[in-house]
Amino acid sequence: MDDESVYRTDKEILEQKAKQLLEPTPAAINISVDEVSYRKYHRYLTNVIDTDRRKVVWNDKGRKAEVLDRYYEGIGSDNCQKIESVAMDGARTYISSTTKYAVNALIVYDKFHIMQKLNNTVDTVRKDELNKAKKNGDDRVVELTNCRQRFVLLKNKSKLTERQAQHLAELCKINEPIYKAMLLKESFLEIYVQPNVEEAEKTLKNWIEQALLSSLTAFQGLAESFTEKMRYILNWFKKRISSSISEGFNNKIKRLKRMAYGYKDIYYFRLKIHQHCGLLNPRLAT
């Protein structure tokens, strides 16, 4: 069979299975919502994952509020009210859609994405200091902050090798902004070891105050964002749901896209995601 015949046959079979298993839209009690890029120039798919079954149950093009609205409308108002928790990356569009439909759900700003944002902020400080060092001709700071060394800053301090620890200690000694950034990163981790939500809230408020007074523009912006979404961060202590499963599926989806050298038919790509990560997986039938 030629490639075109294989594509049409596979798509037809998947469409038949989708009508049986994905219509009506499968409901879930605990879900994770995340987006994945399917094409360059900011083309995204929104995926909804049932975290109890660990399966993709719905996806569609885009990442705006009206995209997620279609999922909630698809499962109906009764099922929306049964949703207990929604893990997400803190996107305003997903939050607004969820608060509108899943009125009883606990929205959890996922710990995985928070740490990702924290590391990205540290890396922003590194880039700023690298650019300054290049302009000032400070070769040692350039050597310690170049892109090959960025993982020393992003890695958990307890997991650094002896050489990496020495590298970090020297960098913090000669560069005050990076020293402040590393202190803020380490102090933020204290939030997640607190025994209860009350202590976590105190620690988070103290951290936000430190970040705002740090004179680091990147951390000041992060602190303002965390202030706005504080209740969603603290909800993790009430329901320790994570969207890290979404990141695992995102990696599978990206690998699927690379194996096919991209998909021109986005609907077919969505079906293939359900086949590899969702309810259309043939292994579920055995």
Describe this structure in words.
- The protein has helices at residues 3-21, 65-82, 92-101, 111-136, 139-145, 150-154, 162-174, 176-188, 197-212, 217-228, 230-234, 244-259, 266-277; strands spanning 30-39, 43-50, 55-61, 85-88, 106-109.
- The model has no long low-confidence stretch (mean pLDDT 91).
- The protein has 286 residues and is of the alpha/beta class.
- The longest helix is centred in the middle third of the chain and has 26 residues, at 111-136.
- The protein contains 13 helices and five strands.
- It has two domains: 9-110 and 241-285, Ribonuclease H-like superfamily/Ribonuclease H (Nucleotidyltransferase, domain 5, 2-Layer Sandwich); 112-234, no CATH class.
- Helix 2 runs parallel beside helix 3.
- It has a five-stranded mixed sheet, with helices on both faces.
Q: Which key terms come to mind for this protein?
A:
5-stranded mixed sheet; single chain; 60% helix; 5 strands; 286 residues; Nucleotidyltransferase, domain 5; alpha/beta; 2 domains
Summarize the structure in short.
Helix content is 60%, strand content 12%.
CATH architecture of the largest domain: 2-Layer Sandwich
Question: What is the CATH superfamily classification of the largest domain?
Answer: Ribonuclease H-like superfamily/Ribonuclease H
Level-1 CATH class name of the largest domain: Alpha Beta
Tally of helical runs: 13
- The total count of strands amounts to 5
The helix/strand order is HEEEHEHEHHHHHHHHHH
| Terminal CA distance | 27 Å
Structural class: alpha/beta
The helicity comes to: 55-70%
Q: Enter the CATH topology name of the largest domain.
A: Nucleotidyltransferase, domain 5
Give the integer mean of the pLDDT values: 91
**What strand order characterises the main sheet?**
3-2-1-4-5
Share of residues in strands = 5-15%
- Low-pLDDT parts are none
Q: Quickly count the domains.
A: 2
Largest sheet, strands/sense/barrel: 5 strands, mixed
